[in-house]
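Entry for the shared binder. Reason: the reviewer on the internal report wants the predicted structure included alongside the sequence.
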Amino acid sequence: MKWRKRGLLFHAKGQREWMQTHAAVPIAEPLQGSLCRIYFSTRDHANRSHTASLVVDLERPQTLLELDDTPTLAPGPLGGFDDSGAMATWLTRVGQRRYLYYIGWNLGVTVPFRNAIGLAISENGEPFRRHAPGPIMDRTAHEPHFVASCCVLEDAGLWRNWYLAGTEWLVGRQRPEPRYHIRYAESRDGIHWQRQGHIALDFAGPGETALSRPSVLRDGDTWKMWYSSRGHAYRIGYAESPDGLAWKRHDASAGIEPSVNGWDADMIEYPHVFDLDGRRYMLYNGNGYGLSGFGLAELE
């Protein structure tokens, strides 16, 4: 597997009042032909995450065709699970209904933040509306820290969900640092989830502190996952599974590494892999967890 980088597509620099910095966790929504809408998370002056979207033509991806004037999702009301940010993480389409799963951010006291997963739904192309004022996935008796960054696929009536789950908070040099890996849940409607604590992808060793943003697709009898892994700095990893449950890591085969210099030289993370017009693409972030923007790569 070898990915050919197509370059930086977009970075936020105050294009909107609520779009001051960051263009993180990109999500592709194929449109007609080679057109593609991309959802991403940006931050305002108060460092709160908003979900935005833009449109590009993947034949000339550096040309911005459309940038929304208003957020797809803005932070929720004071005291809500998403009052400090609403960061989209995955889009699932079933018929004329679109499910936009997003991370709700709360700021903490003893730890920097707490995350939960919310849902916004669009019917027949209408704007996304929150399914409920509260999250559809949150802390539980057996997942007591936080959940975030889900990938949701509908598979013949069975909804499959690979999601980030916090395992502990570590005492860092400046502030507590979270440790998290990827777990799996199932649903019959994409809203109510059966969570058995199944670990889909676990740490390679004690030096690895984070596995996040799974991007899963199915090729025949093989399930494939691209994801972020962090030891010293984020890198993009790769795993395969015969059933979507038991995964074997093949990180050396991911086929994409940081550049020698530039916007993605220090780290690469948050991949989103998708197919369009017979080609396979990857959207991903570079330095600063999306501060430098997101770029595009194409599978050779």
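Summary line for the report: The chain has a mean pLDDT of 97.
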